Amino acid sequence: MKILITGSKGQLGTQIINIIKSGKSELGAIPQGVASADIVGIDVDELDITSLSATRKYLNEVKPDVVINCAAYTNVDGCETNEDIAFKVNAIGPRNLAIVCEELDTKLIHISTDYVFSGVGTKALKEYELTGPVSVYGKTKLAGEEFVKQFASKYFIVRTAWLYGYNGKNFVYTMMRLGKDKEYINVVNDQRGNPTNAEDLAHHLLKLVETEEYGIYHCTGTGECTWYDFAKKIMELSEIDCEVRPCTSSEFPSPTKRPEFSSLDNMMLRCTVGDEMRTWEEALKIFISNLKQ
């Protein structure tokens, strides 16, 4: 088996590669066929997925059995001011991969986001709920989902949220850095979601690889909290003496409307390959413990 990973230098792509190489994740062993797979990791400097001709040429040379698309333009505020770029990377890129994967009879795993929903509600969202993005980021990611469904037949669309991993920039590292420099920080307490450890997400993506359980998935940490709750737990587990104070989103004006409620329910996982996602607190505790070591 040959697995091609786009966006391989990001926090999720890096995590997937590390798990395949070790044959296991923090959650346990991965399928043997995946553990023995040939890995081709590429990033934007090696392939511009927004070019159909370049994508077709590269995939025809590599001939992967599975493509895991971790490439995305995730600068949420940047999407608002660079809409064409966001659309090219988040929509045209997945479209191109879907077209060529269909030509090659290749499976496509495409990573999406909680931002495809409106952010209004109080009950965890299942995969079949109506989407309704309110930001350019969310709209372009939803367009990418639609292209994948339109052009590929062997696809897994996996929505995640509040992702953090050992590699790259994320909320956990930002809070730890600020906590060491400041006596207190203000963190919004009116947005709820699911913190997700990249290790857990990567493990479940690799569980899907050998299956034919195609469709749309939600894959986030178990349980929900606010960014304030998340930040408090980070300080506590990191043993950083910094007070975390709750505030409202209106106190941090942004060009992008963030979802007030975007908690996801991993219903499709439960009903197919199984949901082993750790609680967000447990996954965070092990993450920070590993950082200390």
Keywords:
single chain; 293 residues; alpha/beta; Rossmann fold; six-stranded parallel sheet; two-stranded antiparallel sheet; 11 helices; 42% helix; globular
Question: What does this molecule look like?
Answer:
The protein is 42% helix and 18% strand. The chain has 293 residues and is of the alpha/beta class. α3 packs parallel to α5. A hairpin with a 2-residue loop joins β2 and β3. The mean pLDDT is 97. It has a single domain, classed as NAD(P)-binding Rossmann-like Domain (Rossmann fold, 3-Layer(aba) Sandwich). It is built from eleven helices and 14 strands. The strands form five sheets. The protein has a six-stranded parallel β-sheet with strand order 4-1-5-6-7-12, with helices on both faces. It has a two-stranded antiparallel sheet with strand order 2-3. A two-stranded parallel sheet has the order 8-11. Keywords: NADP, Oxidoreductase. Its EC number is 1.1.1.133.
Mean pLDDT: 97
- What is the level-2 CATH architecture name? 3-Layer(aba) Sandwich
CATH topology: Rossmann fold
Q: How can the largest sheet be summarized? A: 6 strands, parallel
Low-pLDDT windows of residues: none
In total, the number of strands is 14
Q: Order of strands across the widest beta sheet? A: 4-1-5-6-7-12
Strand coverage percent: 15-25%
Shape verdict: globular
Tally the helices: what do you get? Answer: 11
Family: Belongs to the dTDP-4-dehydrorhamnose reductase family.
GO molecular function, one term: dTDP-4-dehydrorhamnose reductase activity
InterPro entries: dTDP_dehydrorham_reduct, NAD(P)-bd_dom_sf, RmlD-like-bd
EC number: 1.1.1.133
